[in-house]
Amino acid sequence: MEHFKTLREFFIEHKKRYILGIIWLIIVDILQLIFPQILRRITDLLESNNLSLNGLLKYSLLIVLTGLGIALGRYFWRIYIQTTARKLEYYLRNRLFSHLQSLSTNYFNTHKTGDLMAHATNDINAVRMALGIGVVMVTDSIFITISALIMMVKTTNLTLSIIALFPLPFLAYGVQKMGKTIHNRFKDVQESFSDLSDRAQENFAGIRVVKSFVQENEEIKKFTEVNDRNFNKNMKLIKISGMLRPLIQFISALSFLIVIWYGGLLVIQNEISLGDFVAFNSYLSLLVWPMMAIGWVINILQRGAASMSRINDILFETPEVTDCKDCIIEKKDINGSIEFKDVSFKYPNSDEYALKNINIQVPKGTTLGIVGRTGSGKTTLVNLLLRLYDIDKGQILIDNLPLKKLPLKTIRENVGYVAQDNFLFSNTVAENIAFSFENKIDESKIYESAKIAEVYDNIIEFPDGFNTSLGERGVTMSGGQRQRTALARAIIKKPNILILDDSLSAVDTQTEEKILKNLKDFIIDRTNIIIAHRISTIKNADHIVVLDKGKIVESGTHNELVKNNGLYNNIYQKQLLEEKIQSI
Ligand SMILES: Nc1ncnc2c1ncn2[C@@H]1O[C@H](COP(=O)(O)OP(=O)(O)OP(=O)(O)O)[C@@H](O)[C@H]1O
């Protein structure tokens, strides 16, 4: 129960509906307890030949009314409790999703998407079951058990009740033991299901790689392995949970056997009437349900608790990067000057420095070019500027203010970032470009940014132009088109700081030239950071830094660096040679 504390707020808000549901449930139970008394009366009257037509009609009407009451009551408790359980599912799903959105990038580096999907589906379902039907079963079982026992003793006698209920403790013990095993096996099933969804998810996301490396059969084999594991875990669960019900039925049948023998004897000896015997049997039948429910309830509550504890693990996870308490909240706009002061940084799960003693100044309205071999720390530099990670040593300043003093929202809203992994959503092209706007924006702005990014002509050739839907990860677009659409998505924000992380790598040099020409006016008043492998992309930058193994090894303008005859010139000469060879 401890695990469900997280939902306190929800319960407080919805307690009225839960209480009303439970009241209706108890009304149904009371009506069910009246039923055997009607049967008892009819049987006794029949036995003594005292049942008149009027009496028969009276009891028939009573039976119909009780039945109707039970039906109505069941409808209402379902409405109150089951709909509240669905509301809980909705509430929990939204809370989980919002919380996941608040977590830092590193959380998603260290947790599998498949696991997160399993929490959002299976675990939330298990919690809904526990707090919906589970609550109903607990209330129902407790109420019916106590009141049916009282009615049994009152209707017949204590000895018969005690003897008939003798097998019950064995049942409770058996169910409790099995419940534990069921719980453990259910956990295994959840885990293997999460591996299964993870495998499928990863395969679909990387389907192009799988196909290009002709790995379909290998992938099917790997999927079958996880599927087998999931199947076997399910089989193990079914074997034990399948035993639960027959066990309950067998033990309850023993109770009936006792009643027939001992109760029958009491009738013959005239200790109890035939009506008492019939009523006692009906109460015993009523007791069978809570006996069975004990098993299910334990099962459902344990599953719910296990799932809630897994969900809590996520909900209690605090973001690694958070807004500081003394943030300058009123600062909504950024002017644009950037400074890295002796910055060093290691990724959370790494011992190596990704960046070491970085000193860079980017005055407002200027462009910084960053080049360097792959893995030299270029993207890391940008990650730190966006505060996707916090730095270990040194300081990063924007507008002469330490990054930590600025609200995260201010930093990210003022930056137009074109990431290397230009992810597009399964929406229309227009929606992808206008992604950062909550409300609908003027179409002309979308067209304008697409024109600057040199993708307008491609988009209007799509079947529905800007309203063309993109498949997952924008598969209908070419790599270059995707890059340019992502560029348009950043341009439309008219950000004070524009960051392009290898954003023109998939376009040819001619298109690149056109884009750079279009960007010339756009970048004038902004602070720009352009990361590139191709020197042609950054050669006009006001200042260029060359990174190698996390350190700045050279810096200056293009001409200065060429003269320097170091790593930059080396890369440049190679690229010039490549261009020459290609043009032959
Ligand atoms: N999330 C991470 N966790 C641990 N190490 C990381 C992580 N991301 C990057 N690294 C490591 O940090 C170093 C710098 O990586 P970074 O992505 O900044 O290089 P890059 O210069 O942008 O490379 P490329 O040109 O290939 O994009 C690399 O050694 C890389 O393996």
TrEMBL record:
Entry annotated with the keyword Nucleotidyltransferase: no
Gene Ontology CC annotation, any one: plasma membrane
Membrane topology: Multi-pass membrane protein
UniProt domain ABC transporter: residue ranges: 338-574
Family annotation (PROSITE patterns): ABC_TM1F (PS50929), ABC_TRANSPORTER_2 (PS50893)
Top-level taxonomic group: Bacteria
Intracellular or extracellular location(s): Cell membrane
InterPro entries: AAA+_ATPase, ABC1_TM_dom, ABC1_TM_sf, ABC_transporter-like_ATP-bd, P-loop_NTPase, Type_1_exporter
Keywords in alphabetical order: ATP-binding, Cell membrane, Membrane, Nucleotide-binding, Transmembrane, Transmembrane helix, Transport
Residue ranges crossing the lipid bilayer per the database entry: 18-39, 59-77, 129-152, 158-175, 247-268, 280-301
Stretch forming the signal peptide: none
GO molecular function, one term: ATP binding
Primary localization: membrane
Protein's UniProt name: ABC transporter ATP-binding protein
Native organism: Anaeromonas frigoriresistens
